Amino acid sequence: MAKKVAVLAVNPVNGFGLFQYLEAFFENGISYKTFAVADTKEIKTNSGVTLIVDDVIASLKGHEDEYDALVFGCGDAIPKFGENAGEQYNQDMLSLIKSFSEKGKILIGHCAAGMMFDSVGAVDGKKIAAHPLAKSAIKNAVVSDEKFEVDGNVYTAQTENTIWMMMPEVLSALK
Question: How much is the pTM?
Answer without folding.
Answer: 0.96
